Automatic annotation (TrEMBL):
Reported function: Non catalytic subunit of RNase H2, an endonuclease that specifically degrades the RNA of RNA:DNA hybrids. Participates in DNA replication, possibly by mediating the removal of lagging-strand Okazaki fragment RNA primers during DNA replication. Mediates the excision of single ribonucleotides from DNA:RNA duplexes.
Keyword Ribosomal protein part of the UniProt annotation: no
Protein name according to UniProt: Ribonuclease H2 subunit B
Principal location: nucleus
Sequence ranges assigned to domain Rnh202 triple barrel in this UniProt record: 8-106
Subcellular location: Nucleus
CDD domains with a match to the protein in the record: RNase_H2-B
InterPro entries in alphabetical order: RNase_H2_suB, RNase_H2_suB_wHTH, Rnh202_N
Length: 329
């Protein structure tokens, strides 16, 4: 039996992991369930990375260069994890090419997916289509106590919610729900508008610290750059939210931020740039064709005509003596 190694974050303080699953927060059919565990009132997600495996596009080229090596079952060869740079014997040798690690997970995304669980998608490409009206929500549209809402999630969405402690669930509900106080108890109700407001705040934070891998042009005008950052931030969240939540987000606006305007202005800027590039290309092509008749770039050969000297023809005249030499008949 192979040993399973999971690299935990520094803040994780647990000797044993109780791993459970929840449906993917995007409700995309092709995406597998999330693998989660709890530690110190926080939720962590277990992700998997494969070592020494190239993409399918470069498979033939990698094979010819012997860049990657596989076992008979097409799995990568063993990989090592070094935990101490000063002592190389302090580490592990993995028996396959997979490496598992943990990252913090925001349970609010799963709550968002639960609210829109009836909105299924095949992939993220459907998110770019025209917004569709979606009014059918999975959860009850009334105020419930945390315990009752927890039971609703277990019964109507997924049994995996039973592994979430009530105190962790309550912390997430406070960010996504309208609340009312009655008799010393707090009642919660999730609404699309509240979720959209929460997502908008998330997107603004992401836009202020975009990853270096985001292909953002450095020469953008300041105002356009602000719009572009909001657009990229929303597109990063595509991988975490269902389609209705994303479409609500990109149409959202308030006194501080206007996502609808950001998408409109950035799209207009890209279209204007495309028109300018086409016009410049046409001007370049026209300049290259100046002086070229019918597109023929070959120069005609110059034919040098030599002057013709006219020779004067002298007629042969007969004199008196010429008859003397004539033949006798």
């Amino acid at each position: 039996m192979s040993k399973r190694i999971i690299a935990l974050s520094k803040e994780c303080n647990c000797e044993e992991l109780h791993i459970f699953e929840l449906p993917h927060s995007t409700n995309i059919n092709s995406k597998s369930k999330l693998r989660l565990f709890c530690s110190d009132d926080k939720i962590y997600q277990i992700k998997r990375q494969m070592f020494s495996k190239g993409c399918a596009y470069n498979k033939t080229r990698d094979a010819s260069n012997e860049k990657y090596h596989y076992c008979s079952d097409s799995k990568p060869l063993k990989s090592g994890i070094l935990t101490n740079a000063d002592e190389r014997r302090d580490g592990w040798l993995l028996e396959d090419g997979y490496f598992e690690f943990t990252t913090k997970y925001d349970l609010c995304f799963s709550l968002c997916g639960a609210l829109f669980s009836k909105a299924k998608s095949q992939d993220e490409n459907e998110y770019q289509q025209e917004p569709r009206q979606f009014n059918e929500l999975e959860l009850e549209s009334r105020f419930l106590m945390t315990r009752d809402l927890h039971e609703t999630l277990i019964d109507n969405h997924d049994k995996g919610w039973s592994n979430i402690p009530t105190r962790i669930l309550q912390n997430s509900l406070q960010q996504l729900c309208d609340t009312i106080e009655e008799g010393g108890d707090t009642y919660y109700k999730m609404t699309p508008s509240k979720i959209t407001k929460w997502l908008a705040n998330k997107a603004v934070k992401v836009s202020r610290s975009l990853p270096a891998s985001i292909p953002l042009q450095k020469d953008l005008p300041e105002q356009v750059a602000g719009h572009a950052k909001l657009v990229f931030a929303c597109n990063i969240l595509i991988s975490l939210v269902p389609q209705p939540a994303y479409q609500n987000l990109i149409q959202y606006s308030d006194e501080e931020v206007n996502f609808a305007k950001a998408f409109q202005e950035y799209r207009k800027y890209l279209q204007d740039q495309a028109v300018k590039e086409r016009e410049q290309q046409l001007q370049i092509n026209a300049a290259m064709k100046v002086g070229m008749g019918n597109g023929n770039t070959k120069k005609k050969a110059l034919v040098t005509k030599r002057p013709v000297v006219t020779k004067k023809v002298t007629k042969v005249s007969k004199g008196a003596i010429d008859g003397f030499f004539s033949k006798k008949k």
